[in-house]
Design a protein that fits this description.
366 residues; binds guanosine-5'-triphosphate; alpha/beta; 15 helices; globular; binds magnesium ion; Rossmann fold
Length: 366
């Protein structure tokens, strides 16, 4: 099941799933969305009926969350949530969800929620959108991830939409099409002739239940060329840039009768990064060239997340983001992909013990 929250969230949710549940504080906005199934109107204290949005004020969205909290907490379990961080409704209601998740105990793998979140392009969007995003990234999002209670989080960026002047509906289709390629991995694994490895629905469900940021991309793979160079050249510009992978997954599709051993060089690349990916090599008869879909799970601390957001901003907006960045004391980067490293860090650095423990919890070692 898919749940869309606020203007952008609802439009993206129906793009993925025509049966999506739609949530807003404005009846007008809910009526405008084509498709979807149930509509949930969250209550705000309005004098003349609920026809307006949260007017870019996350406090209004957050207040409204209280009225639908129980319903929403049940609905999101094991499902996908789409939202944006710029406005008041998506930001406020999603912050409420994340705050509650951060406090929750024992959320099972199958109950974890997958989040798709749209970030504004700070270069051309309003300063309220930027400020709301900074609060969201450094507050509720980070805390929920640190609690280990979310599933994967995909950070979509509106940068390309504004820079290339793409129509909103066209851009939404681009975002969701890109996500669909990643989500198709277990179906393709099941549908096509398997040549090596395998990623079944259970493996995939486990992967997307991990509390990390998920970056994915896909491209025609040239086995004779360096994999890392191809990965760099085929960045998914619809997503925030990833950090070093903690875990990874890839699906390599080869033409009928193609050489299945070309996946070893991809495996060797990940090995050189201390990552052991799960993978599947299948034969797709409709292909002329090998095609690869890669996903990386990575972790970010609040100041690093803001830096990523800053990197996609224009100069005048960067100054603003930088001011917020300065509020964060930079901490040495922790090696989160190895238990030993993390333990070493705990014993050496008593001052950052809490951060390391949060990291350990996040990677499932505690
Ligand atoms: N990619 C994409 N971004 C959108 C879309 N609609 C709005 N946005 C972006 O989302 C942010 C604004 O959030 P909305 O989702 O419109 O706001 P909301 O959550 O409904 O909150 P309020 O309107 O303030 O009640 C801005 O960064 C917009 O550029 C959309 O259809 N696609
Ligand atoms: Mg709105």
């Amino acid at each position: 099941m898919t749940i869309g929250i606020g203007g952008a969230g609802c439009k993206l949710a129906v793009e993925l799933d025509n049966e999506a549940i739609l949530v807003n504080v404005s009846q007008v906005e809910l009526n405008k969305v084509q498709g979807g199934s149930e509509r949930i109107l969250a209550t705000v204290r309005a004098e003349h009926g609920q026809f307006r949005g949260s007017r870019k004020n996350p406090e209004i969205g957050h207040d409204a969350y209280e009225s639908i909290k129980r319903e929403l907490q049940a609905a999101i379990r094991g499902n996908k949530v789409f939202s944006s961080t710029g406005g008041g409704t998506g930001n406020g209601i999603t912050s409420g969800i994340l705050n509650d998740l951060a406090k929750a105990e024992n959320i099972s793998t199958s109950d974890k929620t997958f989040f798709g979140i749209v970030l504004p392009y700070a270069g051309l969007e309003s300063s309220e959108f930027v400020d709301n995003t900074i609060d969201f990234l450094t507050g509720p999002l980070t805390e929920a991830i640190d609690s280990g209670n979310t599933g994967n989080i995909v950070l979509f960026s509106n940068k390309e939409k504004f820079e290339k002047e793409i129509a909103e509906d066209v851009f939404n289709t681009m975002l969701i099409d890109s996500l669909k390629v990643f989500l198709a991995i277990p179906d393709k694994n099941e549908m096509y002739r398997l040549r090596d490895g395998h990623i079944d629905h259970e493996d995939f469900a486990l992967y997307i239940s991990k509390p990390y940021f998920n970056y994915f991309t896909s491209f025609d793979y040239e086995p004779s060329k360096d994999f890392e160079a191809q990965l760099d050249a085929n960045m998914n510009t619809l997503l925030l840039e990833p950090d070093n992978a903690i875990e990874a997954m890839f699906l390599l599709e080869i033409p009928q009768g193609g050489d299945p051993t070309i996946f070893y060089s991809v495996l060797r690349y990940f090995n050189s990064k201390d990552v052991t990916p799960i993978y599947s090599v299948i034969e797709n008869p409709s292909l002329k060239k090998p095609f690869i879909t890669v996903s990386l799970l990575y972790s970010r601390k609040p100041d690093e997340l803001l830096e990523d957001f800053n990197r996609i901003s224009e100069h005048h907006a960067q100054v603003k983001v930088k001011k917020s960045l300065d509020q964060y004391v930079p901490m040495p980067k922790l090696a989160v992909n190895m238990e030993d490293e993390a333990k070493k860090a705990v014993s050496k650095r008593t001052d950052v013990q809490e951060d390391v423990l949060a990291t350990l919890r996040r990677i499932g070692k505690l």
